[in-house]
Amino acid sequence: QATMTTPSLFVYVALLAIALGVSADTADICSKSTTGISDDELAVTCYSGNFLTKMLGELNQGQNKTAEHVRVHLLPYLGGNMTLAALQMDSPDNPTCTVCYTDKDTSVGLTSLRNSLNPEQLTAYDSLGVCYARLTEAIMRALPKSPCGVWLRATPEVTPYDQVLAMMKGIFAEAVNPSLCPQ
């Protein structure tokens, strides 16, 4: 059985969007009709895509970002209210820490980004009990990186929407379920 590599999947999704007449510049990562994703997978795509389309847009506009910088912001965002609150007081000295650092400004910024979604979108994501550490790692594996692995690599030829859509479809294809939690 042949499998698509990530870059060819990005191209496939971009071409599919063009063929369907979806404008990637205005496509809504939270829309069932533009993504072709439904239910639990849409909830995860919408929530994570809210962060990722913003970040990938910044990257494609020339803002350099290390993979580690993105990971330490993505993990507390994907963990939801619990990990966003942990940013207010967590410490690597605590062996049961969840984000393992304290940054109140990051907590405020990521909470604001989270709250840019509507209550139904937040409830749909939160109700899944997503294994946010697994989702973070899956996303980080899928993001394009420099040969040394330190820097994220811009891919301006593919819109952030198309990148996120391809990435999430690839993650779901390998996952046991949309929450990425073991059964």
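(ticket continues) Second input and output from the same batch:
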Amino acid sequence: TGLAQWAKWGGEGSTAEQPCIELQQKFAIKQVTWHARGDYFATVAPTGGTASVLVHQLSRQASQNPFRKNKGRVAAVEFHPTKPFFFVATQHHVRVYNLAKQSLAKKLMSGTTSVCSLAVHPGGDNLVVGTLDRKLVWFDMDLSTKPYKTIQSHEHAIQQVAFHQGYPLVASCSDDATVHVFHSMVYADLLQNPLIVPVKILRGHSMFDHQGVLDCVFHPTQPWLFTAGAD
């Protein structure tokens, strides 16, 4: 398609049995996120304007632009872990789209103007965003479209947030060169609000050129956290 160019990649590791695919887009890609079933993935190119969010299907090698009317500069996107919902975070809001109905289901108000990262709880009803003004904002979508809790524990901008898929843990990493880990319990009883408690501050990185920890991700099964820093 005109949105992206698909091609077989002939570099190291690509074989006839397990070919590698190369996907070329017009704008610089900031984020890639996969649907849980592994056939669909989405890319975010913040400078792409109306083509900043593309959804790709690996089996058909096809790309589409379902959010061309989305308002605001897109910071991050995520698929719902089990339902046909898609989360699009702009600097002000998080919009929740129903992919099956191709409609807007909810609009979450962050109360900030600098959302830069997004993570969805494995249960699908809670999410967090990280902001450049140092805030970790938690939404419980069963409660409200406004934040359930806002935590400001970092000294500089938050660059990424992440949930663990099996343990009740959420992490935020920041340009202050630290990673903050929280115990984050979400209960099956809808009448019981989520519990968020600070657990640990990790200081394995150093600041470089006014940047600190740029990314963090949990291991899918083990209680391990991987981080990438400017150092």
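Agent notes: The radius of gyration is 18 Å. The first strand starts at residue 4 and ends at 9. Closing as not reproducible unless the customer responds.
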